[in-house]
Amino acid sequence: MLMPRQKVPNLVLPLLDGGTFDLSGDAAETGTVVCFYRGLHCPICATYLAELEKRTGDFAERGVKTIAVSSDDEERTRAMADKIEAKSLRFGYDLSLSTAKEWGLYISTSRGKTSIGIEEPALFSEPGLFMITPQQTLYYGSVQTMPFVRPHFSELVGALDFAIKNDYPARGEYTGAV
């Protein structure tokens, strides 16, 4: 399990349009929002990522970079980026399932074609949303066991305003006996 205020696993992935995303060198002033999504087969992910695309500028105003990540290959990732008409949101692809597990993501097996007629991969990770500090430590994290009920980006933007203004620390850091 990832722990607040502790270093998260590094994340190195190819980016659409070339280049490589390397979390350890992302160099965002306030941090990086990493949004793990299920893949092209997920219609809820498309809606969710479209909202993140709309909010990417809001995050950037606060010194926060954004990236959407899945285990899809480049072709399926391109199709998702095109589907949501991404212009600002970065997309990383080819997430290994072992890396997904290091991040605490749940792994699901295919159930065939989804409601939009796209085949699920044999194995894929379920969603997770993380705010990572410039020091590569966990500030905020949320993981889901299925595609439903995800954190709202508008709430995360508002929370960042409060956290920045008040120098609010990451919470949930206690690991001692209870």
Describe this structure in words.
The strands form three sheets. Strands 5-4-3-8-9 form a five-stranded mixed β-sheet. A two-stranded antiparallel ribbon has the order 1-2. Strands 6-7 form a two-stranded antiparallel sheet. The chain has a single domain (29-166), classed as Glutaredoxin. With 178 residues, the chain is an alpha/beta fold. The model has no long low-confidence stretch (mean pLDDT 97). The protein is built from four helices and nine strands, in the order βββαβαβαββββα.
- Cα-atom radius of gyration: 16 Å
Categorize the overall geometry.
globular
Which regions are unreliable across 5 or more consecutive residues at pLDDT < 50? none
Tell me the name of the CATH homologous superfamily: Glutaredoxin
CATH class: Alpha Beta
Q: What sequence of helices (H) and strands (E) makes up the elements?
A: EEEHEHEHEEEEH
Helix content: 25-40%
Main sheet?
Answer: 5 strands, mixed
Overall pLDDT confidence = 97
Strand content: 15-25%
Instruction: Name the CATH architecture.
Output: 3-Layer(aba) Sandwich
* Number of helices, where a helix is a run of at least 4 consecutive DSSP H or I residues: 4
Give the class from helix and strand content and strand pairing.
alpha/beta
End-to-end C-alpha gap: 17 Å
Might you state the CATH topology name? Glutaredoxin
**Using DSSP, what is the number of strands?**
9
For the largest beta sheet, what order do the strands appear in spatially?
Answer: 5-4-3-8-9
How many domains comprise the coordinates? Answer: 1
